[in-house]
Design goal:
4-stranded mixed beta sheet, globular, mainly alpha, 66% helix
């Protein structure tokens, strides 16, 4: 049986690459659609902001949309689909999600082809991608800016690799357009816009004049855009860098201080409260070593253990079977991604798996080549190992597409229950943006953290509500007692638990 799967992949070689390309891209869009279907309306907390922003943009209220969130491209895209198709905001975002993931998958496969990969490598990459538990199993189901970033980040890499390989100006221009659009989805993409072209300095086969000329080509559109922005700010008395959203974070005059302030502040706390006076000088290096460990763990988690291991082995073997220039670009992109991740974690002490995606896509490409080489082997031991990996990835894919478990939509269930039982239409207090969205209540951009909520619980205004719909977590059992002490006029009447009962929505009624 151990040769069944490798033999299957040998037969796949006869499939035309174009045919497989179209099949996989179509499958990716259907997969994205299915991932949305099994959500049954579930959304990420940040998605509420994007939906409200899209609604305001569709109404022509750009100023209000910027106040909701100051990076408006994703919301504008949702609004555009909404206006063109007449679909609702939520459905428009789902259509956009399918389109973006289709573009990302097409670009991913194109990068594999540019790197010299054929049908086998494309299929290996598809297995690693679709069977992954984070990018597909977690992030894809969210209606977030990330899918737009993936689409244009990978499209930019396609054109950059083509430019390095063939030195065509059109590719240099399209690289910039794509990566600048990616930046308008996630500001971290500016690291690639600035850092990736510098790899051209290392192309020793070119004279220095040619290297500098090629770099200028890859920066030309960005330089023009900066000149336009600077001229606009200079001419207009009412404009400043603040009017250009999150770009002010990048072009700040205090950039070094902004990136290191939290590091040094936390290091001071660590040296005084943890290490003590005899070890206090190791606080900064201790934090930095911890950050390195976090980056490694997050990278493996976001990429998938198989893809991460295969990519590591591909790097160890110096990109065997990968086209030289494409491999050079992929390695540089991975390095820039690591720099971006390091800057993020040092600045804000947070490193969500979504920030690792730029590196994960590159590792998926590298891993696909090594995985495909293993699949081509006829050695019994290797054939057995690859067969087990294929089975594990297929099981991962099945897990991704299975319907959600009981309790997954506990917030919607709580809102539906109260809507049915609130026969007198008494006012309801919702302590989370998603609850208000599910209940079709007016949008508010108030903070949902516990400190802000506890202040509201102590105010007289809370007693104007007939019902309170509040979140509880098993991590903070003391909060239920806090509510009993500060809201004696309310009693618990219903509770809805999440999967594994780690979180719940508790409904309180005024006595």
């Amino acid at each position: 049986m151990q040769f069944i799967i490798p033999n299957f992949f040998n037969k796949i070689e006869s499939v035309a690459p174009k045919k497989l390309f179209l099949i996989v891209v179509l499958a990716s869009m259907l997969l994205a659609g299915w991932m949305q279907y099994i959500q049954h309306g579930w959304i990420n907390p940040d998605t509420v902001l994007y939906f409200e922003q899209a609604r305001l943009i569709a109404l022509g209220d750009w100023a209000g949309a910027i106040q909701v969130f100051n990076w408006p491209l994703y919301g504008a895209c949702i609004a555009a689909v909404h206006k063109i198709t007449s679909l609702g905001i939520h459905q428009s975002a789902q259509v956009l999600n399918m389109l973006f993931f289709g573009i990302a998958t097409a670009s991913f496969l194109t990068i594999i082809q540019l790197a010299g990969g054929g049908t086998r490598v494309m299929l290996a990459g598809t297995l690693l991608l679709f069977g992954g538990q984070y990018l597909v199993g977690d992030v894809l189901e969210m209606l977030m800016r990330d899918e737009g970033f993936w689409a244009f980040y990978l499209s930019g890499l396609v054109f950059f690799i083509r430019y390095v390989q063939h030195n065509k100006l059109n590719d240099a221009l399209l690289w910039q357009v794509c990566i600048m659009i990616a930046t308008l989805f996630r500001i971290e993409a500016i690291c690639y816009l600035i850092g990736l072209p510098l790899c051209l300095l290392l192309m020793r086969e070119l004279s220095w004049n040619n290297r500098l000329l090629r770099i200028l080509n890859t920066y030309s559109v960005a330089i023009f855009a900066l000149i336009v922005i600077a001229a606009t700010i200079t001419i207009s008395e009412n404009l400043s860098m603040r009017n250009f959203g999150r770009l002010q974070e990048v072009f700040s005059l205090n950039l070094y201080q902004e990136f290191t302030l939290k590091l040094f502040t936390q290091a001071q706390i660590m040296s005084s409260q943890v290490l003590g006076k005899y070890l206090e000088e190791f606080a900064v290096i201790g934090l930095l070593l911890t950050f390195i460990y976090i980056i490694i763990v997050k990278t493996i988690s976001a990429t998938g253990i198989f893809a991460a291991v295969f990519a590591g082995l591909a790097l160890k073997n110096h990109g065997t079977n990968i086209e030289t220039k494409a491999y050079f670009v992929l390695k540089t992109t991975a390095f820039v991604a690591l720099i971006s991740m390091a800057l993020i974690i040092v600045k804000v002490f947070v490193l969500s798996g979504r920030y690792v995606a730029g590196l994960s896509w590159v590792l998926l490409v590298l891993g696909a080549f090594y995985f495909a080489a293993l699949l081509a082997s006829n050695q019994k031991r290797i054939a057995l190992i690859t067969s087990l990996v294929v089975i594990a990835l297929c099981l991962g894919f099945v897990k991704n597409i299975l319907p959600k478990r009981q309790g997954y939509n506990y917030m919607q269930e709580a809102v539906a229950w109260l809507s049915k039982n609130n026969t007198q239409n008494l006012p309801v207090f919702y302590d989370e943006k998603r609850l208000r969205y599910y209940a079709s209540a007016p949008f508010t951009n108030d903070s949902d953290d516990w400190e802000s909520l506890s202040k509201k619980f102590q105010s007289a205004s809370i007693h104007h509500y007939g019902y309170l719909m509040l979140r509880h977590s098993s991590k903070y059992p003391e909060r239920k007692q806090y509510l009993k002490d500060h809201l004696p006029s309310y009693q618990e009447i219903a509770s809805f638990n999440s999967v594994k009962s780690k979180n719940s929505i508790v409904i309180y009624q005024r006595k």
